[in-house]
Amino acid sequence: MAGVDEDGVRRMGIDEVGLLRECGQRVETKTRWRIEQAAGEEIRRCGKVRDFMIEALLKIRGKDEPELPLALNRAQKEYSERCHSRNIILKARQLGMTTYIAARYFVQTITHPGVLTVQVAHNQESAEEIFGMVRRFWERLPEGMKERALPTSYANSRQMVWPRLDSEYRVATAADANAGRGLTIHYLHCSEVARWPRGGEEVLA
Known about the structure:
This protein is of the alpha/beta class. It has ten helices and seven strands. The strands form two sheets. It has a five-stranded mixed β-sheet with strand order 4-5-6-3-7, covered by helices on one side. Strand 5 and strand 6 (167-173) form a beta hairpin. It is globular, with a radius of gyration of 17 Å. The relative contact order is 0.15.
């Protein structure tokens, strides 16, 4: 990745609160109120800005509807409160943990310069599904955020790059033994490791 345009980043005010306020000028009243709440100093001190951004800004595909706001469920909130820098999740189905982690890492990637995020899925189909979800997060952001603060470029079908931030989001498969090799990865999510080829030893090495 190229060097960070530090002056440009400072001018844009790229951080969680800066993006929230930028977005708040361009959305309906109800969402604007939630954004202003999230940008408050008390919530910032409590470390809840990221989850407010997720719920206020990100959209997912619903079971019965084409699109829904990403409202966090109890399991996702509990993970948010308890997680540390390294976490192992004994995955139960339908808790939405892959969705939440993708959303969490997406927000981290678009609000901090010089970030590389990698999600590794156990097969091609899952990788495409995860990347489709991340792409939807991006595509459904308010136009003002995308046009002014966060222009993006696509390097390939499972990679998103934000040149002005020098940040990048990749989705790989466990079949690629070189996924992420030689890179400085800041956020890494390995999904369904028990189903990886050879137990994941090569990719995780």
